[in-house]
Amino acid sequence: MSRPRLVAGLAAFALLLLAAPFAGLVLATDWRHFGFAHGDGGAVAVSLGLSLVALGLIVALGTPLAWWLARHRVRGQWLIDALLLLALLTPPLAMGLLLATMYGPYGPAGSLLERAGLALTNSAPAFVMAQFYAALPYYVLAARAAFEGVPRELEQIALTLGHSPARCFFRVSLPLAKLGLAAAVALAWVRALGEFGVVLIVAYYPQGIPVKLWTNLQDIGLAAVYPLLWVFFLVALPLPLALGLAVRRRLA
Amino acid sequence: MRVDYRIARPIALAAGFDVEGFTVLLGASGEGKSLLLRAIAGLIPAQGEPFDGLPPQHRAVGYLPQGHALFPHLNAWQNVAFALAGPRRRDEALQWLERVGLAELAERLPAQLSGGQQQRVALARALARKPQLLLLDEPTSALDPVTRDDVLAELIAEVHAAGIPALAVSHDPALAAVADRLVLLHQRRIVQAGTPAEVHAQPASAAVARLLGLRNVFRGKLEGAADAQHLLWLEAGVSLPVRTPLPDGARVDWHIAPEAVVLHDAGAAPADAIEASVELRQSSAHGRYLGLRCGQARLWAGLPSSDAAATVRLSLPPAAIRCWPA
Predict the structure, then answer these.
(1) Element (H, E) at B264
(2) Residue range B182-193, pLDDT digits in tens
(3) What is the interface pTM, i.e. ipTM, of the complex?
(4) Does A161 contact B at CB distance below 8 Å?
């Protein structure tokens, strides 16, 4: 076999491997008796509602940080970079344990917050916190790259044309970083919605889709997870898929 | 308008000079010319007048950086309207575009405009800001060589029509030639200022002569007393009679205009004529020149007649040689 054909063959095999699990889901789903397990609806509501809250917090806090990181170089920059990477690379289960240590009922921050009426274990705020920690580093790194792609000269020109730095940000930096920021939001959305490890430790309840999939599997069996799995794909993926394809088209 | 600025970082630069009409600050690359414009626009830390201490958004400057920096996500009129406020922004922007002759292209994005058109949009945008001073960074660098003289004439006509003092920084002698006023920067200092005619008539140093794009600037050494002075042209290995007020043994830079070089007809050359070989012939809209090789040096000579042999004999008249202490 010639070398180009060998490469094409390997590529086709890899694509086949990628497609196999999705084909499996289509084949395994019992379309005639498609029905949800008890509590699936509530899990979808919890996941969608609280993930939106977490996403809002991530964008609100992560965007200024990403902007600052893209535009400033400080001494000890590597420490900041290392912290971001550490948060990104920490395995979800370990992150969950760290959060339980800090924000659990006996943790230094958790005990204080609980006295103030905010329980960060097995509560809606705990669920949001878990998703926030799971997705924030991804958002910040992607948004920083988006802002770094905006030529600094254009922001400076906007200043010389008499606009305040805030107006320059909203009228030049933000529109020019739009696509990259949208990709960052989509990435954060998927990370937050799909987070299992961190959520499992600090917020087993209220049950979102990932934990509910796990309990369905444990309590009933594999066949019981398919309907909820379909819903998960339907709510989690359209936005990131569309944006991913748009970015690819822009690059092409 | 008097401009007086001091920059400490990233390079130290202090410059004070007058800007009148279309003023060109001429200097080699790396002299900090762009930095000076950015300092005046308030984009880097610096002290000086005008606008001392103001943030960039409060400085009434129209800054045109190299490459024009149009906003790629806005079309031509939106770029101009960016400098405007109020409900009539669009109409005003269109009027500015009409002034620079681009009304028909108002809906085009920057990527769909030529370099010269982009520059005019950037100029309209800068003028719409109602500046007291225009700053232009290398305005000729992005222009197509075929159309640049016309684009340049257009630009200067616009600047004059606007009646706003403009400071252009450049290393382009062609831009310097059309300035109202010329300021020369060498080794981070202002070394000469005046009208282009004044500066061309009396370049203050060899560095100025080189910045003006003069050909035939060489190094040499003076020998002998005032009445029998000779210039030792080291690169060519010849000695030339000269008349200067400079002392014996002085190291000098010297210049002779190509048109002043005397080419002798074969057989009619004097005994002390210099022999040179022809390296290239240059014919252009600006004249006809010979590139000659004299020892290690290249000498340019204006070519009066149509023909020249492969080797020529020439003289450099003492009165045409200008010497500066090196």
Answers:
(1) strand B262-264
(2) 999 998 889 899
(3) 0.80
(4) yes
